[in-house]
Structure formats: C-alpha cells, structure tokens
Amino acid sequence: MFISKFIETKLILGGVDGDQATGAVNVPIYQTSTYRQAGLGENTGWEYSRTGNPTRAALEALIAELEGGVAGFAFASGMAATSTVLSLFKAGDRLIISSNVYGGTFRVLDKVFKNLGIHYSIEDTTNLETLETKITPDVKAFFVESPANPLLTVTDLSAVAQIAKNHGLLTIVDNTFMTPYLQRPLELGADIVVHSATKYLGGHSNLVAGLAVTSNKELADRLAFAQNAVGAVLGPFDSFLLIQGIKTLGVRLDRHTENALRIARYLETAEAVKKVYYPGLPTAQGYEINKRQAKNGGAMISFELNGNYDVRKFFKGLKLISLAESLGGVESLVCHPATMTHASIPKEIREKVGITDGLIRLSVGIEKVDDLILDLNSGIQASLT
Ligand SMILES: *Cc1c(COP(=O)(O)O)cnc(C)c1O
User: Fold this and answer.
1) Contact 253/181 with Cβ under 8 angstroms?
2) Which residues contact residue 237 at a Cβ distance below 8 angstroms, ignoring those fewer than 6 apart?
C-alpha cells in the first residue's frame, strides 16, 4: 500500500498500520503459537508462529518498506539475523568481511561457521583497488558495515556493491549504526541488509532483536525458508515493542545526530583528546563518501585520550553517561571496545586495525547536549593522572 514517499511518515504508518478488525491504531500482540484450522488444508493463512505471526509480519512488512526491499524478516537478535543470513552459504564458500566488523559477527564466523567449512577473510573494504584483488574463486559475498564499529570507518557501499555485481557476489550490509532513516544500502545496490534492532530501531534499550531485508525475490524465498528452518524468530511481544520504537526513530535520530555533531566538535577541540572518529566531521576518513550515501554522520563517536589520561579513571569520573555494552538507546552510553565489544578479536588483530586500549566509544543519547558535554568534561578531569 502506498502511503507516502517520506520516510518520516512511513516510520509511523508503514507496513501494516493498526488493526483492520477493530480500528486499533496499534498492531495487536498476537501472543499465540498456533491457529485453529477449519478443516484439513483449510487455514487462515496462519499455521504456526515460527513460520508466521501477524505481529511479527507487521514488523517485517514495515522494515521491508523502510529499507526499500521486497521482504523483511525478524529474528531473536541481531546475531540470529546475521547467522541465518550466513546459513545461506555452503561449505567451501568464503566471505570477505570489513576489518572493523562487529565483534560478534567475527566470532560467529571464526568459531561457528568456519567449523562448517564457510570461511572468511578480513579485508579493508575502504580500499576499493586492493579489495578487487582479494576476490578468489571461492569468495561468494562481501559482508560490510559502514560506518564500521568502532572506528567509524566509511566504506563506499555503491562501489563495493558494483564490484560484487561484476564478480557475481552478494553484498550484505550491517546497517545497525545508520538505520534506514539515515542510509538505505539496498538503494545503493546491496542485496541483503541486516540489523541489530536492539540498537537504534528499538531505541530504548528494552529489547534484543534482529532484522534482515532483501531486494531480491529469490533471496527472499531462501531467507524465508532459512528463518523458518533455523527458527530464531522474534516473539510477538518484542515485535510489538519494536514497532513502537520504530515510530519515533526519525525524531530520536534527529536529536541523536544533532547532539553527536556538537559533541564531536567539542572533543575535537579538547586538549585531552588525541583523536576523534566521527564520520560527520569534515576531517574524518570517508566524510565525502558518507555524505553521499547517508543523511549525516550518525550518533556514534569514538575517541582516544592522550597517553597521560587514564581511561579507567575517565569511566569512573562520568556521572550521567553509563558505562555499558550496546548503543542506540535514548540514554548516552560509553564503552571500552578493547575489553568489551571487541574483546573476542585477538589483540594483534585489534591493534592492527586501530582498536587500541585507549579507545573510548560513545553512543550519544538524546539528553540535553550541554549536560553531556559537562559530563565528558568531568570524565576528562578525573582521568588526568
Ligand atoms: C549489536 C550489534 C550486532 C549484534 O546484535 P545483537 O542484537 O546484540 O545480537 C550486530 N551488528 C552491530 C553493528 C551491532 O552493533
């Protein structure tokens, strides 16, 4: 159903809007595992909730519409979405992954799929020339993030998707950091988008969920089969919560990203800060590419303190911003990638890609930005050894 060409409106009215039967403005929570059948072979279109559930289906239609794909799929977590997508590959296949890919994505490839004969190579997907030379006959897909976790490195998504097409490969993009409000990889040529909806799409740090969307009908059929066969589906209540979260995505991200730009500028001038990573700063790697493919720089910032500032004391010195894993909620969170989100990546690889022990990652929330800057300043004062 055509509602509007504007994503701000689709966020609220897209997918399945409310309930036809009662006029309820929200999609009901169909908390059921099964559906009564009138006779053999006579069903309502709903048979069993692993295969399909109306609340989950409403969410799936919504994310498909937002990303501009043909079908959406909801999973119990972002990793369940990624793992189900990876289950489309077979023994002997290889994926090329971005060097700053999410730690859990690396872990599932390295510790689970590698044992099944599905291999990976870590490459710098920001370097298009060398990327093309890394394509061996067993490579079947690129798996990229842009901006990538945690150094916010920007990959040219349409260029990578074009290289993939030239070589008959799939392009899979983890769009968690941007969401379809800021960036739509399928429109740039990608085949599959995955999300940890736990982050911005949910937006309130109150659920764990994953989504996948594809632009290709054949892939949609294979994903539907894998979703049902593997079975890591999202439950009706969490599907409902996620639909609620998505309604406010636009207004939240407007504030998140406005705050982030202010904070990045503050950190850039702070004497304690050695380096700021934020794709919304004109000095950042990939600024121009990001500007072309995304609405703005998003709301994730990483920064490194100078050597005479103690990172541990910095975290202790914060009063308002919480030290926690995760990101994308309304509240600001900081984390230490080397010991938290990226601890599963061996130290040599971490150091090689720039995830140093002094690196701090900040998920900028929607609080009053002046409070956040004051708090970061307290952290910096406390960290001066
Ligand atoms: C959190 C995250 C994931 C994993 O999602 P879960 O919902 O925690 O399973 C994948 N990719 C990125 C970029 C993430 O931030």
Assistant:
1) yes
2) 29, 31, 55
Residue 120 bridge partners (DSSP): 95
CB 314 within 8 A of CB 305: yes
User: Tell me: the pLDDT tens digits for 123-177?
Assistant: 999 999 999 999 999 999 999 999 998 899 999 999 999 999 999 999 999 999 9
174, 191, 238, 375: which one is catalytic? 174
Rg, C-alpha atoms of the chain: 21
Q: Which domains does the chain have, with CATH numbers?
A: 7-247 (3.40.640.10), 250-383 (3.90.1150.10)
Closest to 107 measured CA to CA, from 120, 126, 96, 117:
120
Enter the tokens of residue 27: 């999609």
Strand ranges (DSSP E) for 12-116? 71-75, 94-98
Give the pLDDT of residue 3: 81
Helices (H) and strands (E) in the chain, counts: 14, 12
Q: Can you spell out the DSSP letters for 224-253? A: HHHHHHH--BPPHHHHHHHHHHHHTHHHHH
Looking at ligand 1, which atom is closest to the CA of residue 81? Answer: 9
In this structure, what DSSP letter does residue 273 have? Answer: E
Amino acid 2: pLDDT: 67
Q: Choose which residue among 86, 97, 179, 199 to substitute to test ligand 1 binding: the one with the highest number of ligand atoms within 8 A of its C-beta.
A: 199
